[in-house]
């Protein structure tokens, strides 16, 4: 049985988060954690937090089965666009520039077994 974790309103742009999500798609959880811990991207901090939550959710949903991090794999990981905050920056001659502070929603689904090669 699969388990899911969602992190909403993450203050990074979806484009930057998708780069990190692509690094661990389809990998085992222990391999994914190693990749994220050694990543220099700031978004990897949020991904590892959500990955730990998904593993914890799996153990809560399946209390009778013991699954280690080497038995679980990332079945799905995707990043959706969240709300965008719009701010104004003063510009010359009384004008204003619009600044868009983007956010995203991260969803990770973990399952037990071997990942399917596509």
Automatic annotation (TrEMBL):
Keywords: Ribonucleoprotein, Ribosomal protein, RNA-binding, rRNA-binding. InterPro entries: Ribosomal_uL22, Ribosomal_uL22_bac/chlpt-type, Ribosomal_uL22_bac/org-type, Ribosomal_uL22_sf. GO terms for biological process: translation. GO terms for molecular function: rRNA binding; structural constituent of ribosome. GO terms for cellular component: cytosolic large ribosomal subunit. It comes from the Bacteria. NCBIfam families: rplV_bact. Belongs to the universal ribosomal protein uL22 family. Part of the 50S ribosomal subunit. HAMAP family: Ribosomal_uL22_B (MF_01331_B). This protein binds specifically to 23S rRNA; its binding is stimulated by other ribosomal proteins, e.g., L4, L17, and L20. It is important during the early stages of 50S assembly. It makes multiple contacts with different domains of the 23S rRNA in the assembled 50S subunit and ribosome. The globular domain of the protein is located near the polypeptide exit tunnel on the outside of the subunit, while an extended beta-hairpin is found that lines the wall of the exit tunnel in the center of the 70S ribosome. This is Large ribosomal subunit protein uL22. The lineage of its organism: Bacteria, Pseudomonadati, Chlorobiota, Chlorobiia, Chlorobiales.
């Amino acid at each position: 049985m699969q388990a899911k974790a969602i992190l909403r309103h993450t203050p990074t742009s979806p484009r930057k988060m998708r780069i990190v999500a692509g690094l661990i798609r389809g990998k085992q959880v222990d391999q994914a954690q190693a990749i994220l811990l050694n990543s220099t991207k700031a978004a990897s901090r949020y991904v590892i937090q959500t990955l730990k939550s998904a593993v914890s959710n799996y153990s809560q949903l399946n209390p009778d089965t013991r699954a280690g991090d080497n038995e679980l794999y990332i079945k799905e990981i995707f990043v959706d666009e969240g709300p965008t905050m719009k701010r104004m920056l003063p510009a010359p001659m009384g004008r204003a520039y619009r600044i868009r502070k983007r956010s995203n929603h991260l969803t990770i689904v973990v399952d037990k077994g071997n990942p399917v090669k596509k």
